[in-house]
Structure formats: C-alpha cells, structure tokens
Predict the 3D structure of the following.
Amino acid sequence: MTAKTAYDAIVLAGGAAKRLGGADKPAVSVGGRALLDRVLGVCRDAGRTVVVGGRRPTARPVVWAREEPPGGGPLAALDAGVRQCDAPAVLVLSADLPFLGPTTVRRLISALDESNREAALLTDADGRDQPLVAAYRTEPLRRELALLATEHGTLSGLPLRLLAQELDLARVRTDPLASFDCDTWEDVSAARARIREHGYVLDEWITAVKDELGVELDVDTRVLLDLARDAAHGVARPAAPLTTFLVGYAAARAGGGPEAVAEAARKAVALATRWAEETEQAAGPAPGAAPAASGTERGAGGTGAADDPRENGEAEAG
C-alpha cells in the first residue's frame, strides 16, 4: 500500500506526565530507544517532521515548535505544530506510542487518498477514536482550529474531542497495539516486556540497532539469518557474525541498497554451501578406503596408519 498524498508529521511531545510522576515521558526508554525516537522512526516519509515540546536530542532531525502557553494542551500544541507545516496533509501522533508501525501510518495517509474525508482517525480495539493517531487534511485542520480559538477565545485547555467532532472523518482499524500509549509506569513495564517476547524481540533489536547506527536501509532479515545459519553450520559458529559483517561491507562498497545486500548474501550463501559440501565429502571415507584403526589398535604412542599424514585417508594399493 503506497500513500500518494504528500504529508508532514506533527508529534506532540509536551504535557506534564502526571501519571508518570512528572517524568520526561518522551525520553523514557522502551527497547533501548526513547519513546519519542520510536515514534519519529515510523514517519520518515514525512516531508517535514515537527515536534511540539521542549527541545531534546533526537535520532533524526526535526523542526521544533512550542505551544503558547507551554502546557496549554493538545489543541494548542497542534496549532503550534501546523503553523510549521506546508504539505497538503499532516500526520498527527503523540510521542508515547511504542508499538506504532509504518503500516498504520501508510493506512492512515491512504485513507485520505481514497476518500474525500477531512481526516482519518485510528480507532482502537474498543472502537474509540484516537485523534492523536490520525491524518488530517491541512486546510480543514487549520480552519477548525481557528474557529475553535475564535469561539472559546483560546485553545489552551480545550479537549481534543472538540476538533474531531467538527471534521468529516474516515475511521481506520489496524493493529490493536498501534494506539497503546504509555501513560503510567505499569504501561511502560508492559511495553518493555512485550517487545522481549519471542515474536517481537528480533525485529525490535534490528530496528534499534539501525536507529542507533543511523542506518535507514530496509532489507529482508530472513536472507541474513539464513546466511548466518549456513555459515555457522557449514564452516564454524564464529563464521556467522563475521560473514554477515562482510556481506554488509561488500554491499556498502557496491552502492548500498536492499539489492546490493541480497546479491552479496547470495554469493556468500553459495560459498558456504560449497564449503559445506566439501566438508561433508572430506568427513566420509574415500571409495575403497580401509577402515580407520581404532585407538586400541594403535601403538602405545597413540599413532597408527590413520595418523600418518602421508596416508591422507587413502588405502595403499597391494
């Protein structure tokens, strides 16, 4: 599913985090990455990413904005963010969504592509709208924010539902975990435990490593896992990590990209296969070979015909 509409992203990273005891929630680590960085990682296709909140180090460059007054709530923050956007659509996300994935983002933007609606909101497993996991057409969003500011005299402190109820909405259902947010330390603990489960841990780790190293390359990890298995089985266990490293290095020298990785991996797999075949042939007895002498048949020194390098496993003629 490919989104056609160009979009900017607004990530709301303010708030007092009272249920976390006032902790800096966007900086809380889940799976070795700050919650904010996890969210920034799923909107890399945005033309511009605006983070509304206090400045902090981030894994990728962003534009910073701040609501007036600071702590004025989500509508005031959204208004500050949209002032920095110029794309026809904006993706709006809160900064505490550890399980939000790029598939959900694509579905939200595609819902705008496929309809004439003014916004596409994620709905959670209980059917509740999630206006902070949503895509909005920029002009209707600006219009409604301006109308609300005029009607109430300010956007500060207004509930977010006032915005959603004035827009023509499409609703999107996707991964039930996509809207899971970390409001409490119990939520944080649950998220940390979840990503270490068998079905999640490998993808989480690879994503975290790429984020830490600044690598944005998307490759089929199964190809690399198969290569590591073949190298470990056909050569030696330490060959697995060293071989995958060399494949990455070769792919980078070839210009990078998933195709370069796949081609380098193909060559390494073929080599590992040939290596394993030769190893199996060497391990078996050669045609016509005499049985190897057992340890009890050898002399006291423990040497015998099988230990003589001149024999090379071949039986002598005669």
Remarks:
- Strands lie at 7-12, 29-30, 33-34, 49-52, 63-65, 89-94, 119-123, 129-137, 169-172.
- The longest strand covers residues 129-137.
